[in-house]
Design goal:
Strands 1-9-8-7-6-4-5-3-2 form a 9-stranded mixed β-sheet, with helices on both faces. The chain has a domain of 285 residues: Rossmann fold (3-Layer(aba) Sandwich). It is α/β, with parallel strands linked by helices and 427 residues long. Helix 3 crosses helix 16. Its main location: membrane. Its EC number is 3.1.1.23, 3.1.1.6, 3.1.1.79. Belongs to the AB hydrolase superfamily. AB hydrolase 4 family. This is Monoacylglycerol lipase ABHD2.
Length: 427
Amino acid sequence: KMSAMLETPELPAVFDGVKLAAVAAVLYVIVRCLNLKSPTAPPELFYQDSALSRFLLKSCPLLTKEYIPPLIWEKSGHIQTALYGKMVRVRSPHPYGLRKYLTMPDGATATFDLFEPQSEHCIGEDVTMVICPGIANHSEKQYIRTFVDYAQKNGYRCAVLNHLGALPNIELTSPRMFTYGCTWEFGAMVNYIKKTYPQTQMVVVGFSLGGNIVCKYLGESQANQERVLCCVSVCQGYSALRALETFMQWDQCRRFYNFLMADNMKKIILSHRQVLFGDNNMKKPQNLSDADLSKLYTATSLMQIDDSVMRKFHGYSSLKEYYEEESCLPYLHRIYVPLLLVNAADDPLVHESLLSIPRALSEKRENVMHVLPLHGGHLGFFEGSVLFPEPLTWMDKLVVQYANAICQWEKTKSQCSDTEQAVSGQE
């Protein structure tokens, strides 16, 4: 009887059941984490019915076409974001550009890289894209290189700002770094382009933090919009003050992203600590002291770094004042050129509550269109096969496609105006 009991298959069957349950649980987690059941669809669009919007919908197929990320894993906003941020892009091109140096009034040295077009533009005219990268980014980042290479091949000259202090091989020449909304260096680059290429028209492009800077720059003065055909902002949050609370929450792992970005900012600031905090002949920013350096070492969030260091470059009395003054939100309604605002519904950095800002703007202004695909993460928007993404993304294609359409729109308007003037002259 004992031997018969030992030979019973019931015990192994229990083990097999546990294994099957474990496998099922793992598969369930994978499906949920990778959002494999999430549908694909065309991006959600917010705009007013106008001649411009109707023209854009006809001229930009990507606005109405289904965006399909790589099948297995890119329906996850976290993986899209990680691929952009850490895993980088595969087979990234290396466009050749010339680095330009501009001395700012306070002694800072602004730098940007200039890339000439590789083909004739679709309207046969001189058009320059002036580009502002994301936080602590520059022209050598792979997502910028990929976009620039594609824009060059479509006939655009590209000027890419290197955020002050972001390039590891460029020393600061004044005790100041880039901040969330300082437009000085971007404005200096734009003025250089206007002066050097008096016939060129400009397309303004900003990624993430760069989107905040370019929108704020255009809204600061009507003169800043002269010779600007349009503006494109990708994955910005619109209001740092509104984002303050959400960026400290663990929902969608934003607190973890906050920590990683703060760690990167800390390394950049500390690499320039001799200029920013050292005993030298350069005047330190207002109220910046050794105590702030100590706070920087222990900071675990961007907000702590902004409060102890970044706001003091421009003399803001509080973090609230810094975020209010440097956000583009008060300036958006002052932009009169066509404005494309792109976000992803699964962006883990930009809380969904912030998307009410571009949505409300698009409901009031005929020149504004808000584009919201289901997937894309933060500056991801990858396309490709089941596993491996293509280096060129949906975002890259959309920005160029939109810019091409606006160029065509403006040329058509100009030709109609010339025809009307000719007919009027004959009469």
